[in-house]
Each structure stands twice: as C-alpha cells, then as structure tokens.
Fold this protein.
Amino acid sequence: MPENKPLSIISWNVNGIRAWEKKDGFSWLRAVQPDIFCVQETKAQPNQLTQKFLQPEGYKVFWSSAEKKGYSGVAVYTKTDPLNVSFLGTENFDKEGRTLILDYESFTLINAYFPNSQAEGARLSYKIDFCNAVMEKCMEIISHGRDVVICGDFNIAHKPIDLKNPKQNEKNPGYLPEEREWMTRFLNSGFLDTFRIFTEEGGHYTWWSYRFNARVKDIGWRIDYFCINDSSSLKIKSSDILKDIMGSDHCPVRLILGNNK
C-alpha cells in the first residue's frame, strides 16, 4: 500500500464491463486513478477481453468470472500486488463469479456481487445463503486478527432512508424483510456501514432503474456499500457516493483510508 498518503478504493457495478468501456470507462479510470478499483457485474470472461482489460497501465487485475457467459462476475484492479488472492470457497457461489478476496499487509479486501433475490423472492434462499457465507468468511478473517473491508453491490436497501419509495417496494427484491434483517444482523455482528459514519440523512442513492427516467428524477436505491469491522485499526477518512459519474445504472462509491503508520 502507498506510504504516507491516503488509500483510495472505489467500487462500481458497471453492468457489463465491455459496455462500460464503450462508454469511455477506462478514460475515467485513468483520470481518477484509485489505488484499488473493485468492479461488479463484469458479465465477461478473460478470454473475451482485450489487453486493455487484462493489463491496464499501472494496475494488476484479478478476475472471478461466472461459468455462464454474459452473467455476473467481479474484478479488482490494484496498483499494489496483494499478498494472496482467493475466492469464497463455495462452488455454488464461486461458479457465478461473485467474490474476490485480496489480502494486503494491513487488511483483507472482499469484493462481492450479492445475488438479486428476483421477483417474488425466486432466488431469496440462494441470496440469504450467500449472505451468510460472506458473513462467515468475514468472521473467519477477523478471528485471525485481520481487518476486513468488504465492498460491492449488496442488492439490499437496508432502511427506509436508503430508497426513494420504501412503502411501494416492501415486496420487491432488494427490500424484502429477510434481506433487510440479514443486513441488520451483519452490521450488529460487528461491522460498520461506512457511508453512515459521515451521512445520516436519506436521499443518497447508488442505483436507479433505467425505466421512467428514474435517475433524472433521483428515484433511487442505496444498495452499494463499503463496510468495515468496527474493531478495525484502519483510519476511515471518508466514504462517499460519486453520484454524478455516469456509465452504468449504478454509480461508483468510494472509501478513503488514512495512513495507518
């Protein structure tokens, strides 16, 4: 990790990395230059990509792709080589390319794309099983004396202030009682929603439907997070939403960590 300067981590569900690139995504990446860039919903496998994706200037990239082409997938672009890279370790989830776990000197980073529970909770059981597996992995890492930063598209709006129309969405995926209860349980087990350390009020969203001009009207959901174990020695300088960055139906979220030396 860079010494004597803050560490910038950005997380973004790009909803198809090849489509994101056509929207000039790499120009944005070159301009912003985060130390670590976590991507969800790549919808691609490495053999479908050009060298621009596989060896971008200044970054090493790691992939976890779904077996099914054009579906799911995560990637991490990092300026500092991690000590180790692994997956969640459960075939049922890893075959959908849902997690990358990178061990750095001072913390472990988990980049995760949580499943959508789908209409009428068709995949709710799978979703909750994944959530529980992620929480178990986080607790395992902490039990070894390491700090955890987990980021990504959780596909969960936790509280009424995290979406524009909570009442109308109580039976919709992403705001089902079981999903919200899991998020509460996760945070109560020793984790912080870093955005809420700095921002208490509602009206801040990270995803907008492509329908009904929702983004222009700011009818959105906050479903993309950076969470950290509350016993962490990492110094959180800021956690914000980059609402004005276009290129996906999600916008990026950013965590700045201070120098811990």
Observations:
- The mean pLDDT is 95.
